[in-house]
From TrEMBL:
Transmembrane segments: none annotated. GO terms for molecular function: palmitoleyl hydrolase activity. One of its GO terms (biological process) is negative regulation of canonical Wnt signaling pathway. It comes from Mastacembelus armatus. This is Notum pectinacetylesterase 2. InterPro entries: PAE/NOTUM (IPR004963). PANTHER family: CARBOXYLESTERASE NOTUM2, NOTUM-RELATED. It holds the Pfam family PAE.
Length: 468
């Protein structure tokens, strides 16, 4: 698949010499998750878990096996991955805990025979369970280590691999069954105690984050029908996209590049995709694709939602064929990047629980250094804890605690003006660069753009100290 589009996530997966034989999982070590600058390759598809059987010798020490999530295939064998192999989930139980974290993996989608064939050839694990390992180890919010995951380490953690290629919306006969997979996973968790849950958090990154938006109401009503009293909450990471600005050839998918909107319009028919009822009622037939965009869907949802979104999301930029650290950039593209931050900020205005740093990156909650990112001095795990407490207080008719923020959007305007941003890396040299150094490396004339390299360093420093 060439050209722009959120399929950029896939390119990262197999663009590193392993096309055609994508490993069943990515072994992600803390050394390559953003603190050292590598914000690529840890994106929405593979960078969320370590293979339980491939960790370092130290990590495999006796007693640590219990930290692994174990693979369970669905009991309902009619609900499958794209290629008809069994769908399933990984589960790490925490005995006695009444908190459940369900995680939807990301990885964009396919929407035609050509795009699906390409996906099956290049990233088979996103369409088939045949290569899945027996165990996985979670990172970030999926970790069972208290140091890495202070507020959710003691939940029952469920990782649902993405093998339906339909942004988790499909109920289709051509084995696009994302939404049905979620339904069946919950059924299979009943004997494990999910009916007794107090809190069920449906979370996901990238296409999985969009999947949370599309499925949270259905999950809440399914649990309610089972007689569960759990509060169902959503955690959407890097799944809050804006529509593309580019004019494209109208005859997608015959062209090499479809806009996200066109891909979803076509895909919805192929997948027999479903969107939440209240959103669907807002749009006439054929316009349901609009419900894939968080800023259009959010106000129609009744479940509490927390949105995690980099203001300069790399996948959003790829849609416009902008690659930070790539070969070149035009002045128009730089202008687009600056405008993107403003537009994303505006689109998040009415979101009550949000964590939006002014950085260039993609996905956050499964990075093992996720605790290091801050907005206005508050880290994401802390903001989630504040949100948690606020929801508990509201449920129990108590006054929420003051001074515990969870509506956190950076005020500084520039990409990378937040000092805790993941470092930028030049793709050719793998060197860490400042934003201005990267713009120069990509061929932009700073003075022509009205940027004074020295002055702007000082200006950025003062923006940062003023609560960026």
């Amino acid at each position: 698949m060439k050209g722009g589009g959120w399929e950029g996530e896939e390119k990262k997966e197999w663009g590193r010499g392993d096309a055609g034989q994508s490993p069943p999982v990515v072994n992600l070590t803390p050394g390559n998750t953003g603190a050292t600058g590598n914000t690529r390759g840890t994106g929405g598809t593979g960078g969320t878990v370590e293979a339980g059987r491939e960790g370092s010798a130290g990590a495999r020490a006796a007693g640590q096996q219990a930290d692994d999530m174990r693979l369970h295939f669905l009991k309902n064998t009619q609900v499958t991955c794209n290629d008809g192999t069994a769908a399933g989930f990984y589960l790490k139980e925490f005995r006695g805990s009444r908190r459940w974290l369900l995680f939807l993996e990301g990885g964009w989608c396919c929407y035609s025979k050509e795009t699906c064939d390409s996906r099956y050839q290049n990233i088979p694990r996103l369409m088939s369970s045949s290569g899945w390992p027996q165990t996985k180890r979670g990172t970030g919010i999926l970790s069972s280590q208290v140091e890495e995951n202070p507020h959710w380490y003691n939940a029952n953690i469920v990782f649902i691999p993405y093998c339906s290629s339909d942004v988790w919306s499909g109920t289709g006969l051509y084995t696009f069954m994302g939404s049905l997979i979620i339904r069946e996973v919950i059924k299979d968790l009943i004997p494990k105690g999910i009916k007794q849950a107090k809190v069920v958090m449906l979370s996901g990154t990238s296409a999985g984050g969009t999947g949370v938006l599309l499925n949270i109401e259905r999950v809440a009503s399914q649990l309610e029908q089972l007689g569960a009293e759990a509060q169902v909450r959503g955690l959407v990471d890097s799944g809050w996209f804006l529509e593309s600005k580019q004019q494209r050839s109208p005859n997608c998918p015959e062209t090499v590049s479809c806009s996200p909107e066109d891909a979803i319009k076509i895909g919805l028919k192929l997948w027999n995709g479903v969107v939440p009822d209240r959103c669907r009622q807002l749009y006439k037939k054929g316009e349901e694709w609009q419900c894939f965009f968080g800023h259009k869907l959010y106000s129609t949802l009744s479940s509490p939602l927390f949105v995690v979104q980099w203001l300069f999301d790399e996948e959003q930029l790829r849609v416009e064929n902008i690659y930070m650290g790539g070969q070149s950039m035009s002045e128009e593209q730089w202008q687009y990047i600056q405008n993107l931050g403003r537009e994303l900020k505006n689109s998040l205005r009415d979101v009550t629980a949000v964590f939006a740093p002014s950085c260039l990156s993609h996905t956050m909650i499964t990075k093992s250094n996720w605790m290091s990112f801050q907005v206005k001095g508050t880290s994401l795990p802390r903001a989630l804890q504040c949100w948690d407490r606020n929801l508990e207080a509201t449920r129990n008719n108590r006054t929420p605690a003051k001074g515990c923020p969870f509506q956190l959007v950076d005020t500084c305007q520039w990409p990378q003006c937040n000092p805790t941003c993941p470092a930028l890396v030049d793709q050719a040299t793998q060197q860490e660069l400042t934003l201005l150094q990267m713009l120069v490396a990509m061929g932009l004339d700073l003075q022509k753009l009205g940027l004074d390299p020295q002055g702007d360093t000082d200006a950025l420093a003062s923006m940062v100290s003023n609560g960026g």
